[in-house]
Amino acid sequence: MSETVQSTAGGDERIKEISPLRRALIRPELGGMVGTVAVFTFFLLFAFDSGMFNSQGIMNWSIVSAQFMIIAVGACLLMIAGEFDLSVGSMIGFAGMMIAIFSVTLSWPVWMAILVTFALCVTIGALNGYIVVRTGLPSFIVTLAFLFILRGFTIYLPQTIERKTIIGGIKDVAEGDWLASIFGGKVFQGLFVWLGDNGLIETFSRGSREGQPVVDGIPMLLIWAIGLIIFGHVLLTKTKFGNWIFAAGGDAEAARNSGVPVNRVKVLMFMFTAFCATVFATCQVMEFGSAGADRGLLKEFEAIIAVVIGGALLTGGYGSVLGAALGALIFGVVQQGLFFAGVESSLFRVFLGVILLGAVILNTYIRRIITGER
Amino acid sequence: MTEDTKFHHGDAQAKKPIIRMVDIQKHFGSVIALAGVSFDLCSGECHCLLGDNGAGKSTFIKTMSGVHKPTAGEIFFEDRPMHFEDPRDAISAGIATVHQHLAMIPLMSVSRNFFMGNEPTRKVGGISFFDKKLADEITMEEMRKMGINLRGPDQAVGTLSGGERQTVAIARAVHFGAKILILDEPTSALGVRQTSNVLATIDKVRSQGVGVVFISHNVRHALAVGDRFTVLNRGKTLGTARRGEITPEELQDLMAGGQELAQLEGSLGGTV
Question: Do A254 and B105 touch (CB under 8 A)?
């Protein structure tokens, strides 16, 4: 406390005191928090009776949000480190297709298919990063190239091998596989049965599943999303490496001068983004039981939008994983909520554009306060 | 060379130099950037390196800080011959460089900037975490010593003035055990008040026993704080003078290589 007193006494008389409330608000997540409150208020008012907020409805938009969150965490850390990855969407399609080819076409055990796919995709992520830091080209261009390269392979490989662009039958081969259940399974089923028995959540009232809860567990996808958010947040704000991520994106040259291994940080973040995309793909493949050549289309932009809504700067060096998670939540709630509210689904894009613009303007304002720019 | 009477070329010193660079040459392909520069620095002194643009100041300090390897010549650090493979070697030996623009990241807080690349860690359950509390405390303490009152350790560097940023960068280098501090044009982009703050910081650092290499092309700033002055021109040392042995006009003339500036000065009425 004594520090604060001293600084006001000895500080510059031209600096106005900033109220504690305003100071508490100056954080990268502010845009995301305001947006979340606004979105939930909107849908509570206009879609409360539509089933959006019963157990099934909540699970519906939670799953969609969780998907966005998984790729947003990777995109967020990479953007703070000062780079983009436009190949995320293609990577999702590619990873899913690889799992399908390895496990169905080549009849490998599913756990091996998943592990090899992770290794392959993270290596491609590293290659992305290596090319960017070696050539000094903008990551925008390098990863745009990979967007096409990976999508091309995702279409070419199944067509050549299986003469089709969707490979199914993964559910059958994944039955009982220990690693597949980490991506496709559900947890806390007992809790949901108990909740259903006690009338706390809805249960089926007719049919063969009478008495069982409508929502019968938390999908692993949600656990992955929460896990990645916690990991990303702790890494960014509580570790030495997190400081390097900020430094690498804030000013790579200044960071290098201070002894930060900027290139290593950037390559690792490209690998992490690829990892997140592969997690997304694996969960999706295990859920659908198939891999399609068009999976993950436009996901790279959705991830970037979630991150920007969450308060990160496109130019790097500033942002927050929690903010990105809120951005992803807004994204998921709006996308599903408009459906519940009975709004024409094409208006989703309008809504999204408005939120994006509002968030970016708010974030620019916050950043100006923080850095004292005018 | 009439200047020779006034300038002694690195003669016997009362104190032992901490670093001695003898007849350093650096060629980039066919370009001779340094054609034999000799320089030494004692601890607790401020040695100003002056010269016009293109005189070789930057190449020379980059050689000193390990960025370039000299084509010829020798570097003695604490009386031992030294060969820096890269800047990390120089930094770990205790040679820190504060660059004019490339020192601080505006979007990051002062304490995060202060410990950038040297973060203190604390182990919790086998995982090492960034010890933010310790970092914040040390930052506030060091900043107070330098006469900068922060609103808090979380204040972004972007809100500091240019002079304060230089001061943070200098304080950081000294905190991490710099024996030699190379300041590359620390005052060239600053206003009058901020310049005096930086010069005062240099004085504080010098009194702590750190050797300061102060690069500038502003004679006034150099004279305000320097103990010795070495002038570079076209990749060569023109000479070294002690404080009080040389007038600003003589220094100015030397830096510009004499003749042309004399003519210019005539037409401008001696105001440069």
Answer: yes
For residue B130, give the chain A residue with the closest CA. Answer: A239
B193 domain-assigned: yes
Looking at the 3D structure of chain B, how many domains does it have?
Answer: 1
Report the CATH number that the domain containing residue B64 is assigned in CATH: 3.40.50.300
**Residue B204: inside a domain:** yes
Q: Are B106 and A250 a contacting pair at CB < 8 A?
A: yes
Report B:124-143 residues touching A (Cβ under 8 A): 128-130, 132, 140
Residue A3 has pLDDT above 50, yes or no: no
Mean pLDDT of A142-161: 95
Does the complex come out with an ipTM higher than 0.95?
no
Alpha carbon A73 to chain centroid distance? 5
Task: Show the domain range for B55.
Answer: 2-94+179-268
Identify whether B105 is part of a domain: no
With contact defined as beta carbons under 8 Å apart, do B62 and B146 qualify?
Answer: no
Write phi, then psi, for A231 (nearest 5 degrees): -60, -50
Residue type, A213: P
User: Which of B116, B128, B151 lies nearest to residue A255, judging by beta carbons?
Assistant: B116
Please give the interface size between A and B, counted as residue pairs whose CB atoms are below 8 Å apart.
Answer: 93
- C-alpha to C-alpha distance for B131 and A238, rounded to whole angstroms: 8
Q: What is the pLDDT of residues B45-99, one digit of tens each?
A: 999 998 887 788 888 888 888 888 888 888 898 888 888 887 778 888 888 888 7
Write out pLDDT tens, residues B128-181. 899 989 999 999 988 888 878 787 888 888 888 888 888 888 888 888 888 999
